[in-house]
Write a structure and sequence with these properties.
The protein has 98 residues and is of the alpha+beta class. The chain has 2 domains: 32 residues, no CATH class; 65 residues, Orthogonal Bundle (Arc Repressor Mutant, subunit A), CATH 1.10.10. 29% of the residues lie in helices and 31% in strands. The N terminus is likely disordered.
């Protein structure tokens, strides 16, 4: 189970509204990495990720959205669509650095 806790951050002098940031914690009270960060770590380790792997290992039900986030952040995530019988799924990876 995940708990959210809001903590105020320092507001610049003259700001009318205070700024809040959200800190995610698990039941033990430890902060954890976002799905996007966990996904990036796995890709940087050289792993290939599918939607089923992302769901099982990271609890990520919208892998394509997280891949979009990574690409928007400048990561060169590669995709290959695998077709088997009447179904298809995408496999994502980061190219090896030379």
């Amino acid at each position: 189970m995940i708990h959210s806790e809001s903590k105020p951050t320092e507001a610049a002098p003259g700001d009318r509204e205070s700024t809040w940031r959200k800190t995610e914690t698990n039941v033990a009270g430890n902060s954890y990495k976002s799905q996007t960060d966990q996904l990036l770590d796995a890709l940087q380790e050289g792993r290939r990720i599918t939607a089923l792997i992302a769901l099982r290992q990271f609890g990520c039900g919208r892998l394509a959205a997280r891949i979009w986030d990574l690409r928007k952040a400048g990561h060169d995530v590669q995709t290959k669509t695998i077709r088997q019988r009447s179904r298809s799924h995408a496999v994502y990876w980061l190219p090896k650095e030379k």
